[in-house]
């Protein structure tokens, strides 16, 4: 039985992580930490759907050191720039870390600083972090002590593009990613952009040339390609609670006849990637750890079109974090994650 602690349990990613771990047959959740305003409050008081399922009381990061001895793995679900101040001491205590935030998604400190305007305090620790995409780095994850869990937009985008990039089938300068996310991706905090009256019945692009997840997509796909690359990435907020749909365009260099077979072969050992014969829909993946992908080809423009759908809070955050934990612990990567989407 693996004993875990969750830091950031008061946010959407954190509470979804807690929900998965409470159902996991080989995990015991020992403690929860959240923001100072939640200190001393029962998690079921913050999230009534947990009543009679979890009555742990929230602590804060001030309580971290005294609690480390009781657990094996720490999950960090925090805004960027916070985890990096605590991860070195957690590792020094001999514990493993899955960071759901952005602080360990780049092994290059200069690239991290470019996108987040923060100096990383420990470059040696940063260099040892493994990007937590099981479909790309399963064997490295199994040996890791520190996982940088991918972001939600990058998960859908990278999984959609990796087979084409790895096999050199597209013009890397032609990649255009149109991504749409449910409003839960913006977090639980108060924000005018996600106010009901602002978002209901409206679709809005934002951070058109500067979204930080663009840097993550470029950096990680560059590693797959073996060289630096840039993409056009445009995110949108849409009036639904959860889910991400990406539509990706690129100019094809090779033949188009066997694209679907290529994807099926590339993901043959990836239990949570489904290659569809129809266009994906966010409703097919809500509350599941699946990434649904389909691929099409426009002969008139020589354009390959890849469509991918995930639940931003599960495969894009909490579910993928548990998938990484399973690999670290030597469990089957699907353990505790085999639930179907909630449909309709």
Q: Give the spatial strand order of the biggest sheet.
A: 3-2-1-4-5-7-6
Helix content: 25-40%
CATH superfamily label of the largest domain:
Dihydrodipicolinate Reductase, domain 2
Radius of gyration: 19 Å
The main β sheet shows up as: 7 strands, parallel
Write down the CATH topology of the largest domain: Dihydrodipicolinate Reductase, domain 2
Instruction: Indicate the mean pLDDT.
Output: 96
Classify the secondary structure makeup into a structural class.
Answer: alpha/beta
Overall outline? globular
- Order of SSEs: EHEHEHEHEHHEHEHEHEHEEHEEEH
> What proportion of the residues form beta strands (DSSP E)?
15-25%
Low-confidence stretches: none
Care to describe what's here?
By secondary structure, the protein is α/β, with parallel strands linked by helices. It folds into 2 domains: 2-128, Rossmann fold, CATH 3.40.50.720; 152-312, Dihydrodipicolinate Reductase, domain 2, CATH 3.30.360. The protein is built from 12 helices and 14 strands. It has helices at 12-23, 43-46, 64-67, 87-92, 109-116, 123-128, 134-142, 152-166, 196-199, 212-225, 259-266, 314-329, and strands at 2-7, 27-33, 58-59, 73-76, 96-99, 130-131, 146-148, 176-181, 204-205, 232-237, 244-251, 273-275, 291-298, 303-310. The strands form 2 sheets. It has a 7-stranded parallel β-sheet with strand order 3-2-1-4-5-7-6. It has a 7-stranded mixed β-sheet with strand order 9-10-8-11-14-13-12.
């Amino acid at each position: 039985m693996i004993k875990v602690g969750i830091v950031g349990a008061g946010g959407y990613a954190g509470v979804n992580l807690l929900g998965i771990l409470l159902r996991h047959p080989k995990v015991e959740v020992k403690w929860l930490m959240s923001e100072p305003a939640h200190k001393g409050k029962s998690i079921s008081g913050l999230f009534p759907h947990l009543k009679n399922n979890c009555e742990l009381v929230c602590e804060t990061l001030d309580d971290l050191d005294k609690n480390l001895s009781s657990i094996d793995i720490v999950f960090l679900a925090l805004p960027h720039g916070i985890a990096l101040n605590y991860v070195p001491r957690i590792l020094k205590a001999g514990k493993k870390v899955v960071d759901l935030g952005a602080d360990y998604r780049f092994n290059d400190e200069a690239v991290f600083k470019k996108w987040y305007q923060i100096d990383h305090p420990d470059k040696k620790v940063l260099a040892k972090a493994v990007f937590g995409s099981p479909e790309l780095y399963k064997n490295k994850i199994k040996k890791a002590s520190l996982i940088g869990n991918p972001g939600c937009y990058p998960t859908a985008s990278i999984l959609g593009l990796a087979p084409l990039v790895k096999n050199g089938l597209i013009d890397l300068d032609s990649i255009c990613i149109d991504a749409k996310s449910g409003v839960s991706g913006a977090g639980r905090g108060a924000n005018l952009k996600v106010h009901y009256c602002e978002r209901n019945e409206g679709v809005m692009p934002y951070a058109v040339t500067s979204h930080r997840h663009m840097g993550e997509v470029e950096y990680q796909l560059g590693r797959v390609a073996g060289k630096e690359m840039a993409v056009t990435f445009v995110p949108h907020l849409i009036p639904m609670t959860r889910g991400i749909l990406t539509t990706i365009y690129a100019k094809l260099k090779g033949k188009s006849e066997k694209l679907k077979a290529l994807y099926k072969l590339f993901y043959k050992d990836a239990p949570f990637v489904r290659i569809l014969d129809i266009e994906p829909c966010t409703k097919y993946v809500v509350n599941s750890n699946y990434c649904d992908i389909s691929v099409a080809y426009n002969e008139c423009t020589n354009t390959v079109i890849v469509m991918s759908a995930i639940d931003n809070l599960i495969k894009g955050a909490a579910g993928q974090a548990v998938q990484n934990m399973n690999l670290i612990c030597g469990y089957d990567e699907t353990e505790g994650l085999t639930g179907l989407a909630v449909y309709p």
